[in-house]
């Protein structure tokens, strides 16, 4: 396709994706309170000041946080942010398909197979990381709220709480994609399983540091809740890479199959008596200057 047709197709694909996001955003705007309740309910049940002062004084959750919304325009901004975030997430099948439909014609069959595998395994891994974050955050919030000094009240803006929940879900989800990326690099021949195994000490330390930075709580249990699954996924990726390397070596030793063309070796010593082509030879000199059938030479 000419460049103008590619740009026109890209514009149409982007327009369809944006229209899908806008449609879902408008619908989600009517239910933004229910969406906020679903996102924040586990956190509020753990740290929210939803009991009376007398009940709090004698309970183990004496320290709590008052959820606040500051400013006249803050409720509108909050509703817009929640609706737009919901639109982007729920409309992801549409705009991801539009992106894939634009890129797929330029991919080879093997590249398409790897892309399908990445999406097929990547989406469940991302959901697993997000689910883990959603369940770890209430415990993390309880540890943080317990650090509040005596006699002080903790005021937690609702938009900050939503940003924290969203950021942690995205961070945990992307962290779970790292082993899959290593496997894809091994399948494409960029990274060997033996090299991945040699990195295990650095990877364990790096994952631990990442978990310590990514989790807002200083609680070591929360850090281990993120680091331990990524450790396990990393070693699973190493095992898959080693098995794939073993299979590749066995296939190379067996040679090509009956329906597979072998590679040509055109090195000079293996050509086997084939005379190299010299420069073009000139035609023999014409014996006379006589014209034959109106032409200068017999040809």
TrEMBL record:
GO BP, one annotated term: protein transport by the Tat complex
MF annotations from Gene Ontology: proton motive force dependent protein transmembrane transporter activity
GO CC term, one of those recorded: TAT protein transport complex
Keywords recorded for this protein, A-Z: Cell membrane, Membrane, Protein transport, Translocation, Transmembrane, Transmembrane helix, Transport
InterPro entries according to UniProt: TatC (IPR002033)
Topology of this chain in the membrane: Multi-pass membrane protein
Region described as Disordered: spans on this chain: 251-299
Chain ranges passing through the membrane: 14-32, 82-102, 114-134, 164-185, 197-215, 221-243
Role, per record: Part of the twin-arginine translocation (Tat) system that transports large folded proteins containing a characteristic twin-arginine motif in their signal peptide across membranes. Together with TatB, TatC is part of a receptor directly interacting with Tat signal peptides.
PANTHER family assigned to the protein according to its UniProt record, in alphabetical order: SEC-INDEPENDENT PROTEIN TRANSLOCASE PROTEIN TATC, SEC-INDEPENDENT PROTEIN TRANSLOCASE PROTEIN TATC, CHLOROPLASTIC-RELATED
Protein name (record): Sec-independent protein translocase protein TatC
Organism: Streptomyces echinatus
């Amino acid at each position: 396709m000419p460049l103008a047709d590619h740009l026109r197709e890209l514009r149409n694909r982007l327009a369809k994706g944006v229209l899908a996001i806008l449609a879902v955003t408008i619908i989600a705007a009517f239910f933004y309170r229910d969406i906020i309740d679903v996102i924040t309910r586990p956190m509020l049940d753990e740290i929210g000041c939803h009991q009376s002062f007398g009940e709090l004084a004698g309970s183990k959750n004496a320290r709590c946080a008052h959820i606040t919304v500051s400013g006249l325009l803050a409720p509108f901004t909050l509703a817009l942010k929640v609706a737009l975030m919901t639109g982007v997430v729920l409309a992801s099948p549409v705009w991801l398909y539009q992106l894939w439909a634009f890129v797929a014609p330029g991919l080879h069959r093997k590249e398409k197979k790897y892309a399908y595998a990445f999406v097929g395994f990547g989406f469940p891994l991302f959901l697993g990381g997000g689910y883990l974050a959603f369940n770890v955050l209430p415990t993390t919030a309880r540890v943080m709220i317990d650090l509040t000094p005596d006699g002080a009240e903790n005021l937690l803006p609702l938009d900050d709480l939503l940003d924290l929940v969203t950021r942690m879900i995205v961070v945990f989800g992307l962290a779970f994609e790292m082993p899959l990326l290593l496997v894809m690099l091994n399948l494409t021949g960029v990274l060997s399983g033996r090299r991945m195994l040699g990195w295990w000490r650095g990877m364990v330390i790096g994952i631990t540091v990442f978990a310590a930075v990514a989790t807002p709580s200083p609680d070591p249990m929360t850090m281990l809740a993120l680091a331990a699954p990524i450790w396990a996924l990393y070693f699973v990726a190493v095992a898959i890479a080693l098995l794939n390397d073993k299979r590749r070596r066995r296939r190379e030793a067996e040679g090509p199959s009956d329906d597979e063309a072998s590679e040509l070796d055109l090195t000079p010593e293996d050509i086997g008596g084939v005379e190299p082509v010299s420069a073009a030879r000139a035609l023999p000199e014409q014996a006379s200057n006589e014209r034959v059938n109106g032409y200068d030479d017999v040809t």
